[in-house]
Amino acid sequence: MTRNEVTELVITQKLRKQLTWPQLAESIGLSKEWTTAALLGQMTLNAEQAATIGGMLELPAEAIEQLQVVPYKGSLPTAIPTDPLIYRFYELVNVYGTTFKELIHEEFGDGIMSAIDFNMDLKREADPNGDRVNITMSGKFLPYKSY
Questions:
Q1: Do 24 and 18 meet the contact criterion of CB atoms below 8 Å apart?
Q2: Fold of the domain spanning 84-143
Q3: From CA 74, how far away is CA 67, in angstroms rounded?
């Protein structure tokens, strides 16, 4: 069983069991954002977390093992994404990426925002003109070193 097959099985079982990402996250005591990323193949669960999720989703032992394997991160195709929602993030980086870079460098210096030491929160923001998606991302600043 490949990691991609496990991801497909997780999604299928989540639907069959009528579970939500927050419910799965609560079962292992982690955020819905991190847990969703893990179950979509981008993070590694420990044995206890994998067993808990595996039990909730009735996954086979082989799938539970795969949830504990360090994944190949960044699994999106290298071509421009065609899914409209994912494309909007691609567009956001194309339009604002240089702005993010310039403002981060001006505020912090030459370095990057970590996607490893990272937190994210996604929530619905009520708005009379149509609800908004509010995403807060917080990554540790890592300066480039001279050597």
A1: no
A2: Cyanate Lyase; Chain: A, domain 2 (3.30.1160)
A3: 16
Domains in the chain: boundaries: 3-66, 84-143
For the structural domain made of 3-66, what CATH number should be given? 1.10.260.40
- Cβ neighbours of residue 57 closer than 8 Å, sequence gap 6 or more: 9, 10, 13, 14, 17, 19, 24
pLDDT, averaged in runs of 10, over the chain (147 residues): 95 98 98 95 96 98 97 79 91 90 94 95 97 97 92
> Cα separation of 23 and 9, whole Å?
17
Give the integer Cα–Cα distance in Å for 119 and 40: 17
Query: Which of 44, 52, 61 has the alpha carbon at shortest distance from 24?
Result: 52
Active site residues: 88, 91, 114
> Considering the entire predicted model, what is its pTM?
0.83
Question: How does pLDDT run across 96-106, given as a tens digit for each residue?
Answer: 898 899 999 99
In tens, the pLDDT along 113-144 reads: 999 999 999 999 999 999 999 999 999 999 99
What is the distance of C-alpha 97 from the center of its chain?
19
Q: Are 139 and 114 in contact (CB under 8 A)?
A: yes
